[in-house]
């Protein structure tokens, strides 16, 4: 099968749009429509149907997507391994998986470093789905990831930093003593960040200790926490460095947790597909240069 047909399939699947695919592939929309028609004929399936303002994949398309994505990634990696890579002139796009906390804490340094040495290179941030991360790295869906959850497979990971979790409170939240008690912790309303973000260590510890909290809200982004904690007088368990950064802009304070949580290791994980290609070696090295002292 024509490799360009596979690339068209992947783009339509990911964007849900023939127009966006044509723009990304620098072809006309009729060319994309013709490619989809050829795919439908070769695979004997509709593949995409219009619904909700976008092209929705059929069950057959859903089953084919991960296989096509992996195959194209491996072909690209094989080709890359034979080429030299010049960051000064390359317009390649790299895919980096981050939680929103990672975007806040790491993305500015990464972009500054990349723009200094590779002004045409693009970085696409892929939102964190911790349950899928190992598969994404193994198949080359993402080129690298920054996460605090350990992964079973070896992805050539590097420790970026170690820190602890603290409790984020409104500035006028009244404690009976100098330190928060477990009773005060459980009695307050909590803003809890969903486990899909990858910050599992504190949540797993709370569960193992049998601590029951009063959940006021469950959110999927750390960035909303300073607003709702300060406005609604809630508690949130967050990494210390991010919490202290928020103190400069919001009427908040931090308190030590009334129970022990193991240190949080933040790791850079490298994608397995094409790990030895010059382009990916440069990308991984540049990430480390941007984030390590």
From TrEMBL:
Source taxon at top rank: Bacteria
InterPro entries: LysR-type_TF (IPR050389), LysR_HTH_N (IPR000847), LysR_subst-bd (IPR005119), WH-like_DNA-bd_sf (IPR036388), WH_DNA-bd_sf (IPR036390)
A Pfam entry, by short name: HTH_1
Keyword DNA-binding tagged: yes
GO MF term set: DNA binding; DNA-binding transcription factor activity
Annotated ranges, domain HTH lysR-type: 1-58
Keywords from the named record: DNA-binding, Transcription, Transcription regulation
Family that this chain belongs to: Belongs to the LysR transcriptional regulatory family.
Name assigned to this protein: LysR family transcriptional regulator
Lineage per the UniProt record: Bacteria, Bacillati, Actinomycetota, Actinomycetes, Micrococcales
């Amino acid at each position: 099968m024509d490799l360009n047909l596979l690339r068209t399939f992947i783009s339509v699947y990911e964007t849900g749009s023939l127009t966006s695919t044509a723009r990304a592939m620098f072809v006309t929309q009729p060319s994309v429509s013709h490619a989809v028609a050829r795919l439908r004929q070769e695979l004997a399936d509709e593949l995409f149907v219009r619904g909700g303002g976008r092209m929705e994949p059929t069950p057959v398309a859903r089953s084919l997507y991960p296989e096509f994505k992996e195959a194209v990634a491996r072909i690209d990696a094989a080709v890359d391994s034979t080429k030299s890579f010049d960051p000064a002139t390359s317009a390649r796009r790299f895919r980096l998986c981050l939680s929103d906390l990672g975007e806040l804490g790491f993305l500015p340094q990464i972009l500054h470093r990349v723009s200094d040495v590779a002004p045409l290179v693009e970085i696409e941030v892929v939102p964190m789905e911790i349950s899928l991360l190992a598969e994404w790295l193994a198949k080359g869906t993402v080129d690298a990831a920054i996460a605090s959850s350990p992964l079973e497979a070896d992805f050539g990971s590097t420790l970026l930093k170690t820190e602890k979790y603290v409790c984020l409170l409104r500035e006028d939240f009244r404690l009976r003593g100098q330190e928060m008690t477990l009773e005060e912790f459980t009695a307050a309303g909590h803003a809890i960040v969903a486990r899909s973000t990858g910050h599992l260590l504190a949540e797993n510890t709370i569960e193992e200790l049998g601590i029951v909290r009063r959940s006021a809200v469950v959110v999927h982004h750390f960035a909303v926490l300073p607003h709702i904690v300060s406005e609604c007088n809630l508690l949130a368990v967050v990494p210390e460095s991010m919490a202290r950064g928020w103190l400069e802009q919001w009427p908040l304070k931090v308190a030590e947790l009334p129970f022990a949580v193991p240190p949080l290791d933040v790791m850079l994980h490298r994608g397995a597909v094409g790990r030895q290609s010059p382009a990916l070696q440069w990308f991984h090295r540049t990430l480390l240069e941007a984030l390590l002292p």
